[in-house]
Design goal:
The complex is a heterodimer of chains A (110) and B (373). Chain A is built from five helices and no strands. Chain A is mostly helical. In chain A, helix 1 packs antiparallel against helix 2. The relative contact order of chain A is 0.04. Chain B is an all-alpha fold. In chain B, 74% of the residues lie in helices and 0% in strands. In chain B, helix 1 packs antiparallel against helix 2 and helix 3 packs across helix 6. The radius of gyration of chain B is 22 Å and the shape is globular. The chains are: A mainly alpha (110), B mainly alpha (373). The interface between A and B is large, with 67 and 78 residues.
C-alpha cells in the first residue's frame, strides 16, 4: 500500500520537481514540522469522508452480508435498510449535483 | 454528457429507459444506437462520422475475413487494413499536434497546430474495435452478420468513457437477445446508484480537498498534510474510476447485458502484482491478450519476453501520458510474474514480494532518477 501511495504521488504531478518536493514532505526530509494548524484543519474537516472512503474501499459490506444470510429477520431488516440507503444516496447525489459545481471529469487525457 | 450530471440523470436516462422498454425487442438496439449518438453528440458531434466510418470498416473487414477464411494471405490483409485504420485515427487524435510541434522545433518551420480536442472515448472505442477484429481473425468469435447489431456493440454508450472494455464475445448473444427482466433492472439500478454515490458523494468531496492541498504543495507542507493529501488522492481516483465502471455495469444490466467487472477492491492488495490484478481489470487483460501474448508472451525465452514487455510498455506509455503510463506498469507486472520467478529464483532470496517491490521501484523510480540528476 505504501508503494501504491508513493506511485500515486508520481502519477498525480506532471512536474518532476513537485514530485520530489511532495515525497520529501511525506518523509519529513524538508525539515518542516510534523503538523501544524493547517493540517489539523483539514484533518478535522475531512476525517469523516476519508474514513468513509477507506471503509468503502474494502469489502466490508460483502462480509456483513455473508454473516447475516442465516436469519430471515435480519435479512428483512437488511433489505429495508438497503432500500433506504439507496434512496438516500440518490437524494444526496441530486442535492450535491444541483448545489455543487465541483464535479471534475478525470478522463480528458484518455 | 457525463453520468453524474443532472441532465443525464433526470432527462436523458428516464426518457431513454421509457422508450427502450416500450419499443418491441426488434427496435431496442435502434434505441440504444440513437441514445448513444445523442450521448456523444452532447459534447463532440464531429466524432460521430468517424465512429460510423470505423464501424463500417470493422464490419466490412470482419466479414471479408470470414469470407476468405481458407485464404490465409487475404485474411491477414483485411486484418491489417482494419487495425491500421483504427490505429491511424487514434494516433491522429492523440499525436497530430505533438508531431507538428516536434517538426516545427526540429526544422524551424511554423506549421500551425490543429488543436483538435481528443474526442471522449476514442481510446476505448479503438480497443473495442481491435478486440473484435482480432477475435474474428483468430476464430474465437464468429463475425457479426448484421451491421445493425455491430453498430450497437461499437457505440454502446455506458462503457465508452472509462471502461470496462467490453469484448465482443461478452455481449454477442445479448446484442440479439437481451436478458431484460425486473430482477436485472433492480440489480442494475442498485449498481448504478452505488456507482453514482461513489463518484458524487465520495470522489467529488475528497477530490475537492485534494485540489486545495495540491495547489498549496510548494515545499511548505507538513508531514501530516502530505499524507492526508495523498491518501485523499488515492481515494478520489479509485472512487471516481470504479464509480464510473459501476455505473456502466449497472446501466448495461438494466438494458439486459452483462459487462465484465473492472475493479475488485484494489486497495486490499498485499502486493503490487495483486494490485494490478484488481485495478482496471479489463484494460490489463486487453493488453495481455491482444499485445503481449500475440507477440509470444513468455514462450520464446527470456530475451524475447523482455522485448515483449518493453513493447507493451512503450506502446502503452506513448498512448496517453500519465493515465496510461501508470497502467502500463501494471500490465507489465501483471503479465510477468513468470519472468519475476525466473530471475528471482536465480538471483534473489525466496520472497517474491520483495522482488516485486524491487522491480516496481526500479521502473517507477526511473522518473525519480531524473529528479536526482
Amino acid at each position: 500500500m505504501l508503494l501504491v501511495l508513493i506511485s500515486w504521488v508520481i502519477f498525480a504531478f506532471e512536474d518532476l520537481s513537485k514530485i520530489k518536493n511532495y515525497l520529501c514532505s511525506m518523509f519529513d526530509l524538508n525539515g518542516i514540522n510534523l503538523l501544524n494548524n493547517e493540517a489539523l484543519y483539514y484533518l478535522n474537516n475531512y476525517i469523516v469522508i476519508i474514513i468513509i472512503g477507506i471503509i468503502c474501499s474494502i469489502p466490508i459490506i460483502k462480509f456483513i452480508k455473508k454473516k447475516n444470510t442465516t436469519s430471515t429477520i435480519k435479512q428483512n431488516i437488511g433489505g429495508v435498510l438497503e432500500s433506504i440507503g439507496y434512496i438516500a444516496i440518490v437524494i444526496l447525489c441530486t442535492a450535491s449535483l444541483v448545489n455543487n459545481s465541483f464535479n471534475p471529469f478525470l478522463y480528458f487525457r484518455f | 454528457m457525463v453520468f453524474s450530471s443532472v441532465v443525464f440523470l433526470y432527462i436523458f436516462l428516464p426518457i431513454m429507459l421509457l422508450v427502450y422498454f416500450i419499443v418491441p425487442r426488434k427496435f431496442k438496439n435502434l434505441v440504444m444506437i440513437i441514445a448513444s449518438f445523442i450521448f456523444f453528440a452532447w459534447g463532440e458531434i464531429r466524432y460521430i462520422p468517424i465512429m460510423l466510418l470505423l464501424a463500417v470498416m470493422d464490419f466490412w473487414c470482419g466479414n471479408k475475413i470470414n469470407k476468405y477464411w481458407e485464404d490465409k494471405k487475404k485474411k491477414r490483409i483485411y486484418l491489417w487494413i482494419d487495425v491500421a485504420v483504427n490505429l491511424l485515427i487514434l494516433f491522429f487524435f492523440k499525436y497530430a499536434d505533438f508531431i507538428i510541434s516536434s517538426i516545427n522545433s526540429v526544422t524551424g518551420l511554423d506549421i500551425p497546430l490543429l488543436n483538435i480536442p481528443l474526442p471522449i472515448g476514442v481510446s476505448f472505442n479503438t480497443f473495442q474495435s481491435l478486440s473484435y477484429i482480432i477475435d474474428v481473425y483468430r476464430g474465437t468469435v464468429s463475425c457479426e452478420k448484421s451491421f445493425y447489431n455491430y453498430l450497437t456493440y461499437t457505440t454502446l454508450f455506458p462503457q465508452i468513457i472509462a471502461g470496462p472494455i467490453v469484448r465482443y464475445e461478452t455481449v454477442d448473444e445479448e446484442l440479439v437477445d437481451k436478458k431484460i427482466s425486473l430482477d436485472n433492472f433492480s440489480i442494475g439500478m442498485k449498481r448504478f446508484i452505488i456507482g453514482l454515490g461513489k463518484k458524487v458523494l465520495i470522489a467529488n468531496n475528497i477530490g475537492a480537498m485534494w485540489n486545495v492541498i495540491e495547489i498549496g504543495s510548494y515545499g511548505e507542507m507538513t508531514v501530516l498534510l502530505s499524507w492526508i493529501g495523498i491518501i485523499s488522492f488515492a481515494l478520489q481516483i479509485y472512487f471516481d474510476f470504479s464509480g464510473y465502471s459501476d455505473m456502466a455495469i449497472g446501466l448495461a444490466k438494466i438494458f439486459g447485458m452483462d459487462f465484465d467487472e473492472n475493479f475488485n477492491y484494489p486497495y486490499i492488495s498485499k502486493s503490487i502484482t495483486e494490485f494490478w490484478r484488481r485495478w482496471h481489470i479489463t484494460l490489463s487483460s486487453w493488453f495481455r491478450d491482444y499485445i503481449y501474448i500475440p507477440l509470444g508472451g513468455n514462450r520464446h525465452g527470456l530475451i524475447k519476453q523482455i522485448r515483449n514487455i518493453l513493447i507493451v510498455w512503450a506502446l502503452t506509455r506513448s498512448l496517453a501520458w500519465s493515465f496510461m503510463e501508470f497502467r502500463s506498469l501494471g500490465t507489465i507486472f501483471w503479465s510477468n510474474s513468470n519472468f519475476g520467478k525466473i530471475v528471482y529464483v536465480k538471483n534473489i532470496g525466496k520472497n517474491t514480494k520483495d522482488f516485486w517491490a524491487y522491480i516496481y521501484n526500479a521502473t517507477c523510480f526511473n522518473k525519480l532518477g531524473y529528479i536526482c540528476i
